[in-house]
Amino acid sequence: MAAIIKTAEEIEKMHIAGKLAADVLTMIEPFVQKGVTTNELDQRCHDFIVNTQQAIPAPLNYHGFPKSVCTSVNHVICHGIPNDKPLKEGDIINIDITVIKDGYHGDTSKMFTVGKGSILAERLSRVAQECLYIGINLVKPGAHLGDIGAAVQKHAEQHNYSVVREYCGHGIGKGFHEEPQVLHYGKAGTGEEIKVGQCFTIEPMINAGKKACKVLSDDWTVITKDKKLSAQWEHTLLVTENGVEILTLRPEETIPRIINHD
Ligand code: MF3
Ligand code: CO
Ligand code: CO
Fold it and tell me: What's the gap in Å between 32 CA and the centre of ligand 3?
């Protein structure tokens, strides 16, 4: 199926939605501390999105998801449901934020470490972010989606990590998950051609051990089968004439917002 090309008006709305999603991650950072529960983090994000941003937390009731954000701790790969268990020193946690503003979605996630993480956990988290950045750097009109997957997979496997196959990046706009699927593995030169005006996410899930995953009986929480750590980072992107713009960039990041390949 064909990717949706956004109009100038839609792109303006994607800019706004992307910034709001990024702002939620910046807002929540100081609260990610030993002893806090993921329910408390969810409630803070919910209130900020609804009251301050006057936006909608997209996960809430999405196919029955019960909370406003996803919180994926340690061996949880993605779609973790916030709960009443306090975070402990050394935990790594992905918080995945999706907001809807004026009908358009912004989707972004990052890893946080509670207190001081193990060398292993910090390395996994860093390499997963590098996988995202390497993928972003390949986005431009005429490139193929497979170029992104191949580069992400190569970087992860060079570090002896594995790439989760069951979940992928996605087109985004009026819909939370639009065409196309953006795989985080594959072969360069294969897959759809990337087109100017397209918006999609890259969101690699990188496992310290094997790639196999399973879904818990809550029907949402995805964990590594071997119970080893997993890390994920996500940005929402706009394909420009000669490269890419990161719609969900945060001030703390050093990668440029607009990457120009000419
Ligand atoms: N934010 C996730 C993504 O990146 C999707 C979460 S769906 C939910 O695509 F229902 F679990 F919230
Ligand atoms: Co996404
Ligand atoms: Co997301």
Answer: 18
